[in-house]
Specification:
8-stranded mixed sheet; 31 strands; Leucine-rich Repeat Variant; globular; alpha+beta; 5-stranded mixed sheet; 27 helices; Neutral Protease, domain 2; 883 residues
């Protein structure tokens, strides 16, 4: 069926184009051909995002409105068992509602369903629970339905303890987003119904239960073995935000005005550890409340650190769950901060909880806003350089994914909803919000955001709601912006040349958009500026890029020292320039923006000539912002020039540990220098930062083969936050594979096994994956870890096995695709299986047929691209340009 759909899709493209062009020519009609230009996404730039099981998804219907949920659940961590009941107060939305379909995981045993009139008939099959009313509800009629159940959930509610990893305490925690809460309580598991909740959690003493809303009461059982916590959340919210964490915790208390702010950390951590990670929370709450024009709206705000969490954090309403790794000691604090995670999850209390996306195609309204607001906090707390540094990180992170696939940010074709939580929904969306901030200006942008929040508080939202709010406050028509950045894929790839003509006294700037055009990836409209710096001063010109090629001419009497297109790099573009070394050097030394200086450092690292090395070395000593110093150090390493050594050695004394780490890593890219090796050894003995120590081990293993094994053994003996030093020693074993192949394998196998530190195990698995790809016995060893109970080990193993591309791994990957609790890893497994299938078909298809099919495919795609490019070029000429 899918192949047939693809053929129709191609025919529709060609037919639509021909029909549109002919009718337009004959009758002079204006045709918007874009609706007909919807080719098969399986042949588009998003192919690597999809699996063959992907399909379009739409919002789900509701026959009743859930008004309130009461959950009564007894949790037995020893048996990994739950039993209890959930009660819903509902109101019929339609006439004659005779049945209600809820989501309920297959591991749940539904024992009884009843309302005030008695038992209700029901059927539970797969993940659906169908409840029937013998007397249908009339529109507006209310009812209370109670579902009694028990079971051992396979996902959604997770049990942690020493049986999973030695030394871990007993914990139980939930993770509902995207649609996993129904695996532990029957519910409408889709984000288009909001209701208030309360929960009675009965847990064995001395464990505590932390949940949503305010703590109403705590009662012990008559036998003194169990304790019940009653929590109540009075602000309506969607089902995936219901949460619980159960375990022993140290509670640290703070306040934001009259609102309790609580930090729960495992007993192994101190109050100082909790405050080191979470201490800025009240200040963030005050800042977000003021900036968004809407005070934090819940009864409390709690943050609880748990083991084996799949994410950095999850913004459950009023009760965020975070991974325990965010807690760190003073030495780790030299390089590590929790502020970004804390701000991101807190921002979700507005964007995601107070306003919730109506469906997963609009998840960017949750995730991009949280990403963006975390950077806005950094700007408030640390200054504009910190904000721009976050933007640069978004840019790099998005581009790494963009090399694999491109998709529209607002997009409804996927395999699992969890697939939508990618770099397009986070980092690219953050860049989109920054572009809107640039386009509208500070006052109008924040006025529009506040109107969006105020208008849609306690509602579900879609992208058009945000666009309308911005348009209402600004008077600007933003359909073109949302169309190109959210409903289309990709970004502009600009080729830029600048030439100063002394005879004419002008600067000629040529700009071409070179991204491959398709119905998915358009020509972009970019209203921006050109900044020209000469010895006489600075001048700035407004320009509009909206065609495939532009030539701009600016009167200029002096040769420019620096020319910037889009100074500050506010628009998401890749820019390829032909600047000489001296211009890049000037930009590195004098550009105002962190973004522009970092781009200059990268360009000089690629050039690598003597002038570039000298400019980088000089800038490393003068640069004020630590992030750009890191970029400069990395660029010096990429030059592969021994002339970079002195500057990098000086950087070993940088006051910022992150820069020292970058300098050590850069030295590792150069040829060994015995005197510098001695400096690194001495630095290791006194350096407090774990990351710097880890980098020293990697560099010295590369440089000193004779002592490499001793350095690896030394690193393996050193515990550190996140097992950084041990992981570095294990990753360094790859450099010794040729000299000591069997010893390397044996040591990595030993450290991959259960019982070793978590992230050391991950590093061992990742390094094993990079050894001899033809070693099938090694692949079988890795396959065993695809069922490991430690999430990050399991994830590393699944990706390791998939990357090795062994046909006999198909069975292990199919088991992952069918049983893995994390849908993102299921998607990974499906994609690896499809690649194995494609490779098998490639081998079985005769080469001549394969070549002919590929030639036909490329020819058809090129013809379609040519036609689309012509149509877009024609459209840009006929459509009046709008800034």
């Amino acid at each position: 069926m899918k192949r047939w759909i693809r053929m129709i899709g191609r025919a529709g493209v060609v037919g639509g184009l021909v029909l549109g062009i002919l009718l337009g020519s004959l009758f002079g009609w204006t045709w918007d051909t874009r609706p007909t230009l919807q080719p098969d996404p399986f042949q588009g730039p998003m192919r690597a995002f999809l699996t063959d099981q992907a399909r379009p998804f739409y919002a789900r219907d509701r026959v009743v409105d859930i008004q309130h949920m009461t959950l009564r659940l007894k949790v037995d961590p020893t048996r990994k068992w739950i039993e209890g009941a959930v009660t819903y107060r509902v109101e019929a939305l339609r006439p004659q509602v005779a049945q209600w379909v809820l989501d309920a995981g297959p591991d749940l045993e539904i024992r009884r369903v009843a309302d005030g009139s008695g038992d209700l008939p029901f059927q539970h099959y797969g993940e659906q629970l169908v409840i029937r009313w013998p007397a249908p509800l009339s529109m507006g009629q209310t009812d209370e339905v109670t579902i009694e159940y028990q079971g051992r959930p396979s996902k959604g509610l997770y049990f942690v303890g020493p049986d999973v990893h030695p030394g871990w305490p007993v914990q139980v925690w939930s993770q509902g987003e995207a649609e996993d809460n129904h695996f532990w309580f029957p519910t409408h598991d889709f984000p288009n119904d909001r209701f208030t909740t309360e929960a009675y959690w009965t847990v064995p003493k001395p464990l505590m239960a932390i949940a949503n809303g305010a703590l109403v009461d705590v009662q012990d059982s008559p036998d003194g073995r169990w304790r019940t916590y009653h929590w109540k959340e009075s602000v309506p919210h969607v089902a995936y935000l219901v949460s619980v964490v159960i375990g022993e915790f140290r509670k640290v208390e703070d306040r934001f005005g009259d609102i309790p702010v609580e930090y729960y950390v495992p007993p192994a951590f101190t109050e100082a550890d909790a405050r080191r990670s979470f201490g800025k929370t009240p200040a963030m709450m005050a800042f977000f409340s003021e900036r968004l024009g809407f005070r934090y709206p819940y009864e409390k705000y709690a943050q609880t650190a748990v083991y084996n969490f799949q994410y950095g954090g999850m913004e459950n309403i009023s009760a965020t769950t975070v991974w325990v790794e965010t807690l760190h000691d003073e030495r780790a604090h030299l390089e590590t901060r929790s502020d970004g995670l804390v701000a991101h999850e807190l921002a979700h209390q507005w964007f995601g909880d107070l306003l919730t996306c109506k469906g997963w195609p609009h998840i960017w309204l949750n995730e991009s806003f949280a990403t963006f607001m975390a950077a806005v906090w950094a700007e408030h707390d640390e200054g504009r350089d910190a904000y721009d540094w976050e933007r640069l990180d978004w840019f790099d992170t998005y581009l790494r994914q963009a090399r694999e696939y491109l998709r529209p940010i607002v997009w409804n074709v996927y395999t699992y909803p969890d697939d939508m939580f990618d770099r397009h929904s986070y980092e690219k969306g953050g860049l989109v919000l920054h572009m809107l901030r640039t386009l509208l200006g500070e006052e109008l942008f924040w006025k529009g955001v506040r109107q969006y929040v105020r208008t849609h508080a306690h509602q579900t939202v879609e992208t058009a709601d945000f666009r309308k709010a911005l348009e209402e406050v600004s008077g600007m028509a933003l359909d073109w912006f949302f169309d190109q950045w959210l409903e289309h894929a990709g970004h502009p790839k600009l080729h830029v040349t600048s030439r100063w003509d002394p005879e004419r006294g002008e600067l000629v700037l040529q700009v071409e958009q070179r991204q491959p055009l398709s119905p998915w990836v358009p020509l972009f409209r970019i209203p921006t500026q050109v900044r020209i710096v000469t010895d006489a001063g600075v001048e700035t010109h407004d320009v509009l890029i909206h065609q495939a090629a532009h030539e701009f001419r600016f009167p200029l009497r002096q040769k420019p020292r620096m020319v910037l297109l889009d100074p500050g790099r506010h628009w998401l573009t890749e820019q390829e320039w032909d600047k000489p070394t001296d211009e890049w050097a000037y930009q590195l030394a004098h550009a105002e923006s962190v973004f522009d200086r970092a781009m200059a450092a990268r360009a000089l690292g690629v050039k690598g000539d003597a002038g570039a090395v000298a400019a980088l070395a000089d800038a490393l000593a003068r640069e004020r912002f630590y992030g750009v110093r890191m970029e400069i150090a990395e660029a010096l390493g990429k030059t592969k020039s021994q002339a970079a050594v002195d500057a990098l050695v000086q950087a070993l004394q940088d006051p910022d540990a992150r820069v020292r780490r970058a300098a050590v890593q850069a030295l590792g890219e150069l040829e060994p220098v015995p005197t510098v090796a001695a400096r690194l050894q001495a630095l290791y003995d006194r350096e407090p930062a774990y990351g710097v120590r880890a980098a020293i081990i990697r560099t010295l293993v590369r440089w000193e083969k004779g002592r490499a094994w001793a350095w690896i053994q030394r690193g393996l003996r050193e515990p550190s936050h996140g097992d950084q030093v041990q992981a570095a020693a294990l990753r360094a074993l790859k450099d010794l594979e040729k000299e000591r192949p069997q010893e390397v394998r044996n040591l990595l196998r030993e450290w991959a096994r259960p019982g070793k530190p978590l992230y050391a195990r991950v590093a061992a698995v990742q390094t094993l994956a990079e050894l001899d790809p033809n070693d099938q016995e090694l692949t079988r060893f890795l396959e065993a870890f695809t069922q490991d109970p430690v999430y990050r080990v399991r994830a590393a193993a699944i990706r390791a096995v998939g990357s090795r591309k062994h046909e006999r791994s198909r069975e292990a990957l199919q088991r992952v695709a069918q049983t893995e609790p994390d849908n993102r890893l299921r998607t990974d497994a499906l994609q690896y299986i499809e690649r194995l299938t494609a490779e098998r078909e490639r081998r079985e298809t005769p080469a001549d047929i394969r070549a002919e099919l590929e030639s036909l495919r490329r020819d058809l795609l090129q013809r379609l691209r040519d036609v689309e490019a012509r149509l877009q070029g024609l459209e840009s000429k006929l459509t009046p340009a709008r800034p």
